[in-house]
Automatic annotation (TrEMBL):
The keyword Hydrolase does not apply. Keywords: GTP-binding, Nucleotide-binding, Repeat, Ribosome biogenesis. Residues 459-487 are annotated as: Disordered. This is GTPase Der. GTPase that plays an essential role in the late steps of ribosome biogenesis. Associates with the 50S ribosomal subunit. The gene is der. Pfam families: KH_dom-like, MMR_HSR1. Residues 478-487 have a biased composition (Basic residues). It comes from Salipiger thiooxidans. The lineage of its organism: Bacteria, Pseudomonadati, Pseudomonadota, Alphaproteobacteria, Rhodobacterales.
Length: 487
């Protein structure tokens, strides 16, 4: 899914019919009566070899108050703002109406890519309406018949070059993870962190249950009400990214739809929203798991944090609505105890208390995010690792399953983002999980890596030993050097 396409237009111009055709099934209700679609609906669109997210929207109404029509209009405008491409549909048989002209003006201002489509354009009766569409100033209209499938090749030819551009953008925005390190680095490793720039900002996903305050938090960080908020749970329906400079650090923050328990996800749209949140985690380097202070660490919170750890992302836990918490010290102690007990794989991850409403704690959250990112990128030299490993084995030797002693030969760091280490040993398949956990916990403590996912791989002694080879090579070079001096 390289881009999103929002279908917009007046009520009853055929938006849902086109949506159903692009997703290949009847997800959206279709009826001759206008106004059947009231909410946004997402689906996986297919057109030839193109794959994209297609969004069916409510018919654009001219109401701007808090009536149902006014709220529907605001939701549709939000889809316009967030979609990569807008397909503006008019009814070719009716022709261009004053309402069409109003919304064409809105789209010119709010959307970077607008495709004008004259629907119901089969037959000569639609010719006059197609000609009128040129007057909207949105380029040449596509003649479509969503009901009969006419005009799909022409739509493909317009979308294909846009898709290529969005595919390049997605490749640029994808974070670099599981970065391979050279085993020849030894003690002379480069410990400099990757540079955070406007082109490669630090990428953060804010995830959590519905109504935890994710959009409110991001609005407070931005200093403006960019994202729709309210007391109702589930206002945010798709993952939205915003760019900002937060205290001098370029960042891209993904606001995600609240992730509910699977049993409560009934609407197709909400299922898609959850999958969008999962995609946001994959696009992030640091994941902020936002909890509600009143009901922290429910099962779904634990699943979200565990998902981020399994994806290998740095994790920061933020407890929101702290301004209304009465027994702060006692609550904080209980939270830390519960976190270490329920998520031992993220032991030591930063836990920050914030108030998205007042902005208190945002400076601590910023510092925790940067610290978590720095640890996620940490590199440890081979010499340090092997001196540490020797001490760990002396203190607590590995077990001897079936009388066979497991010997740990040497250790090196193979990856960063997150840190990944390889231990060369005999009988790696017999190494118990408890001893691996002992080593991982020791790594966290010895090299100051709290909270970040750590990958530890056991390899058989038959594998090449670059540490030993490097030592022999250095010894040979020293002997040759001394021989020259003696000569």
């Amino acid at each position: 899914m390289t881009f999103s396409l929002a279908i917009v237009g007046r009520p009853n111009v055929g938006k849902s019919t086109l949506f159903n055709r692009l997703v290949g099934r009847r997800l959206a209700l279709v009826d001759d009566q206008p106004g059947v679609t009231r909410d946004l609906r997402e689906g996986e669109g297919k057109l030839g070899d193109l794959r994209f997210t297609v969004i069916d929207t409510a018919g654009l109404e001219e109401a701007t108050d808090d009536s149902l029509q006014g709220r529907m209009r605001r939701l549709t405008e939000r889809a316009v703002d967030m979609a990569d491409v807008c397909l503006f549909m008019i009814d070719a048989r009716v022709g261009v109406t004053p309402t069409d002209e109003v919304f064409a003006e809105i789209l010119r201002k709010r959307s970077k890519h607008v495709i004008l489509a004259a629907n119901k354009a089969e037959g000569a009766a639609a010719d006059a309406g197609v000609l009128e569409a040129y007057g909207l100033g949105l380029g040449e209209p596509l003649r479509l018949s969503a009901e009969h499938g006419e005009g799909m090749p022409e739509l493909y030819s317009v979308l294909m070059p846009l898709s290529d551009g969005f595919a390049e953008r997605a490749a640029e925005e994808a974070p670099e993870t599981e970065v391979e390190l050279s085993e020849e680095d030894g003690d002379d490793i480069d410990t400099a962190l990757p540079e955070i720039t406007d082109k490669k900002p630090l990428q953060i996903a804010v995830v959590g249950r519905p109504n935890a305050g994710k959009s409110t938090l991001i609005n407070k960080i931005l200093g403006e009400d960019r994202l729709l908020t309210g007391p109702e749970a589930g206002i945010t329906r798709d993952a939205i990214s915003v760019r900002l400079d937060w205290d001098g650090t370029p960042m891209r923050i993904f606001d995600t739809a609240g992730m509910r328990k699977r049993a409560k996800i009934q609407e197709k749209l909400e299922k898609l929203s959850v999958s969008d949140g999962l995609r946001a985690v994959k696009f992030a380097e640091v994941v902020v798991v936002l909890l509600d202070a009143a009901i922290p660490f429910e099962q779904q919170d634990l699943r979200i944090a565990d998902l981020a750890e399994r994806e290998g992302r740095a994790v920061v836990v933020a407890v929101n609505k702290w301004d209304v918490e009465e027994h702060k010290q006692e609550k904080l102690r209980d939270l830390k105890e519960a976190f270490d007990r329920l998520l031992p794989q993220l032991r030591g991850a930063p836990l920050v208390t914030v108030s998205a409403k007042t902005g208190r704690g945002l400076d601590r959250l910023n510092a925790a995010i940067l610290k978590a990112w720095e640890i996620w990128n940490r590199r440890v030299s081979t010499g340090q690792l092997n001196r540490w490993l020797e001490g760990m084995v002396s203190s607590h030797p590995p077990p001897a399953p079936q009388g066979k002693r497991i010997k740990l030969r040497y250790m090196t760091q193979a990856k960063t983002r997150p840190p990944g280490f390889v231990v060369m040993c005999s009988h790696p398949d017999k190494m118990p999980d408890s001893y691996t956990r002992y080593l991982v916990n020791g790594l966290r403590e010895a090299f100051d890596m709290p909270g970040t996912p750590i990958r530890l791989y056991m390899r058989g002694q038959g594998d090449r030993n670059p540490y030993k080879g490097r030592r022999e090579k250095n010894a040979g070079a020293l002997k040759k050097h001394l021989g020259k001096r003696k000569g």
